[in-house]
Amino acid sequence: MKRRTLLKGAAIGLALAAGPAVAQDETYTIGVAIPSATHGFMGGLNYHAQASIERLEATYPQLDFVLATAGDAGKMVNDIEDMVATRDIDALVVLPFESEPLTSPVQAVKEQGIWVTVVDRGLSVPGIEDLYVAGDNPGFGRVAGEYFAENLNEGDNIVVLRGIPTTLDNERVDAFTAAIEGSGINVLDMQHGNWNRDDAFNVMQDFLSKYDDIDAVWAADDDMAVGVLEAIDQAGRSEEMWVVGGAGMKQIIKRIMDGDPMLPVNVTYPPAQIATAIELTALGLVSATPVSGRFIIGSQIITPENAESFYFPDSPF
Amino acid sequence: MTDTTATGAPARRFRVSFQTLGPVLALIALIVLGASLNSNFLSYGNVTNVLARSAFIGIIAVGMTFVITGGGIDLSVGSMAAFVAGVMIMAMNALVPSLGVGVPLVLAGMAVAMLTGLAAGLLNGLLIAKAGIEAFIVTLGAMGIYRSLTTWLADGGTLSLDFDARSFYRPVYYDGLFGIAWPIIVFAVVAILGEIAMRKTPFGRHCASLGANEQVARYSAVKVDLVRMATYVLLGGLVGLATIMYVPRLGSASGSTGVLWELEAIAAVIIGGTVLKGGFGRVWGTVVGVLILSLIDNILNLASIVSPYLNGAIQGVIVILAVVLQRQGKSAD
Question: Does residue B260 lie within any of the structural domains?
Answer without folding.
Answer: yes
